[in-house]
Amino acid sequence: RKRQRAVAVVPPPMKSRKKARQVTSRFHRVQEQLHAAEAALSAAKDAGQATGDTEDKLRRLRAELQQLGGREAYQQASRLQLQFCDSGRYVFQQLTSRGFRPSRREKRRPRVLEIGAVTRTLLRCPWLDVLAIDLKAQEQDIREVDFFQLEVDSERPFDAVVCAMVLNCVPTAAGRGQMLLKIREHLAIEGLLFVMLPKRCLSRSPHLTQPEFLALCEAMGYALLHQKASPKILYFVFSLRERVPLPDIAEQRRNPRRKKSTTRKGADVCNFDVRLSDPALDDEQARQG
């Protein structure tokens, strides 16, 4: 009698970079669709409309997410990608070149907030005081907390905030805008913000270009200090010059023709966008005005 092979409880370790990119892209797409379906379901219930089709869609999306391996598979893929992204080395180099690395006589270590931490690279650095957080921590030293719920310590702001391959994980454009705004509350004036993004977020999006993204960051009070690009990743370093009040931040008008031209190019379209408000509400207000 043949022995049955044991069924793996957790997905096997991911080794292929191509597979990792596929998993992260699919995870983001499904999460985006889930968020939209949940919002549609809530709106339908409030309006007293039928919800059967939307509930079926939610079940299909949740099953697809489970088949993918859920957040655990996504974190494995993210960990593999970050190994090649080498964000830690970039952070160390920029902090050192900009005078943040303390001398041997200095006792105070720069305080760093790492959002969406999946490795202990920054935590292992002896000259940094790091608070690493993630929604579902996989390492003992990483604190499991939602960044949007993280309490602000105005007396001890961070000298640097690291947001490596995280902004693109937020499911909505308005949520990404809120993350960039909230980071300012945790970051000291003249402190550094590190942002790493998949290159396709700003090269294959029908909504947002790289110059538009940088202009929006500048309007919020971030000054670009350095940028570089690898074949797959964009790296940015900003300095927080001021916390511009939200009513005073002017969002640039987007080119409506670009959306049509980009979506015709095929399947490699990325829906990445950053908004400081809900564009649907803006359109509704514009129609009423």
UniProtKB/TrEMBL annotation:
Domain of life from the UniProt record: Eukaryota
GO molecular function: rRNA (adenine) methyltransferase activity
One cellular component term from this protein's GO annotations in UniProt: nucleolus
Record key words, sorted: Methyltransferase, S-adenosyl-L-methionine, Transferase
InterPro entries: Bmt2/SAMTOR, SAM-dependent_MTases_sf
Positions of region (Disordered): 1-23
SUPFAM superfamilies attached to this UniProt entry: S-adenosyl-L-methionine-dependent methyltransferases (SSF53335)
Gene3D superfamilies: Vaccinia Virus protein VP39 (3.40.50.150)
Protein known as: Uncharacterized protein
